[in-house]
Amino acid sequence: MFSKSPVHISIMLVTAIMGLMMALQFRVVNQMPAGIPTDRAKEIIAELKQVNREKENLTREIGDLEYKLEQLNRGKSEAMLALESELKKVRMSAGLVTVNGPGVEVVLDNPELQESQVPPELSVIQDQDLLSLVNELWGAGAEAISINGQRIVATSEIRLAAPFININTTRVVPPYQVLAIGNPETLAENLELPGGLLEYFRDMGFQVTVEKHDELTIPAYSPR
User: Fold this and answer.
1) What single string gives the DSSP state of each residue in 60-115?
2) Is the peptide bond before 6 cis (omega within 30 degrees of 0)?
3) Can you tell me the distance from the alpha carbon of 215 to that of 207, in angstroms, rounded to the nearest whole number?
4) Using one digit for the tens of pLDDT, what is the confidence trace for 99-135?
5) Is residue 198 within 8 Å of residue 210, measured between CB atoms?
6) Mean pLDDT of all residues in the chain?
7) What is the C-alpha separation between 127 and 166, in angstroms, rounded?
8) CB under 8 Å to 129, separation ≥6 — which residues?
9) Cβ contacts of 112 within 8 Å, gap of 6 or more
10) Contact yes or no for 175/131 (Cβ under 8 A)
11) Tell me: the pLDDT tens digits for 22-37?
12) In 3-state terms, what secondary structure has residue 155?
């Protein structure tokens, strides 16, 4: 076995020291933050600006969509209100709901025989007389009409079944109470026009009265 000379020992020491120094230097380099190249920094700044621009565009787009959604919902609400109003009119025209409101009450009765100036067979209220009165009221703007509690609708029949009159297949007898909801002044004025329908009824000897009311109730149509 060869003994190590002082020169060999010195070389080994120097080598060990250099290795230790290199190891320490490597650790320090690894622990230091890496520097960002100038070109890469410019790219990152440009990308950041682009992202900000896209964010602004998206924010504006979101605001525009929210506005359009609000307008759509508002339009939907208005459309629903219009449909509900139209449905209400249709239901009322069909007589499916009870109606309350101002209007007129017309009571029509046969004449007293001793006072009538026309033959008895002509002095009795006919179905055509009631039909004429109903049409006169519709023409004057009535919104709902009933005769002796029977709601008049588009399919109602007013038919003579002597000595009675059938309305909606229900037998009614005089006096005939006709209720009409609408503007009381307009309805009454149209009925009382000179040479109008009520004047004709009175000339026939019928007993006729017209009263204006602030509140009337007309029942819903009730088919049997």
Assistant:
1) HHHHHHHHHHHHHHHHHHHHHHHHHHHHHHHHHHTT-S-EEEEEEEEEEEPPPGGG
2) no
3) 24
4) 999 999 999 999 876 555 656 556 789 999 999 999 9
5) yes
6) 83
7) 8
8) 108, 201, 206
9) 207
10) no
11) 655 555 444 445 556 7
12) coil
Mean pLDDT is highest, among 72-76, 100-104, 114-118, 164-168, for 100-104
CA angle (22, 26, 28) in 5-degree steps: 115
Note whether 99 and 218 are within 8 A (CB).
Answer: yes
Nearest to 143 by CA among 179, 107, 180: 180
What does the alpha-carbon distance between residue 185 and residue 103 come to, in Å, rounded to a whole number?
8
- Distance of alpha carbon 93 from alpha carbon 181, whole angstroms: 12
| Amino acid at site 220 | A
165 forms beta bridges with 160, 172
Amino acid at 120: P
Tokens of 169: 């297949």
C-beta of residue 105 within 8 angstroms of C-beta of residue 151? no
Question: With the C-alpha atoms ordered 179, 184, 185, 187, is the resulting torsion angle positive or negative?
Answer: negative
Burial (CB count within 10 angstroms: exposed 0-12, middle 13-18, buried 19+), residue 125: buried
Please state, in angstroms and rounded to a whole number, the distance separating the CA atoms of residues 6 and 15: 14
- Residue among 218, 98, 223, 92 nearest 155 (CA): 223
Buried b (16+ CB within 10 A) or exposed e, 54-69: eeeeeeeeeeeeeeee
Predicted confidence band of residue 215 (pLDDT cuts 50, 70, 90): very high
Per the CB < 8 A criterion, the answer to whether 145 and 134 are in contact is yes
